[in-house]
Fold:
Amino acid sequence: MTTDIHETVRLRYAEAARGVMSGESCCNDAGKYGSELYSALERDELPTTAVMASLGCGNPIMVADLHEGERVLDLGSGGGIDVLLSARRVGPTGRAFGLDMTDEMLALAQRNAAQAGATNVEWLKGHIESIPLPAAAVDVVISNCVVNLAADKPAVFREIARVLRPGGRIGISDIVADDALSAAERAERGSYAGCIAGALSFAEFRAGLESVGLEDVSLTVSHEVADRMFSVIVKARKSSAASAGGNVGSTESTGSAGSSPAAETFAAPTKSCGCDGACR
Structure:
């Protein structure tokens, strides 16, 4: 099952990367996915192909509060838009890592970094369930609509806690389901590669982060992407008192819930652009 999910997602994003390299923009669904979730100023900072490859459901840079000299890891970095924006914010004394499992996306990201003149970036190949970095390696973990694609989400949460230094934090955009939706109902709303079928509920996402010892967990709705499926800003922090080697429930691998927003009012979601609202 895990292998099948990985392969489904890999094929979808390999296709997207090849499309961008041939001059075709990835999908952009009426402000719900893609580059329109970034400001014009942010888009102007980057190579056109980095912007074209943006398939996320939010803008984690807005909430990550990055500082000069910090080390940042982007899970599922795709064409590199969030890594390159992070690299500018942490400056030459900081470092931005991008982790992706798709060769085509990594090649596109490397090309974009070279065009942007970014020298403080590093691209890693691997799965977000097994991050190829040592424990306590980064100050911040960001991600843009990728956790919902993971085949083993508890492993993702353990790995996030492991690679964060004590006092480190996360700033993640992701798709989260209304607590009342069953797994079957989530699957009805879209494929795994379309970011819907694999989404956790609000309660499940919160419980997953807290189970590995992350604190101050918050999930804030940004916008609705489908019926009772939401783009959510997720923030949390690793305790400053936590050991550098991990946290509650963490693994030693080196990589080789809040209330549902039922009371909110949203406009009805528009039809997808034809790629199932795919996100990076």
Observations:
- Residues 25-41, 247-280 have pLDDT under 50 and may be disordered.
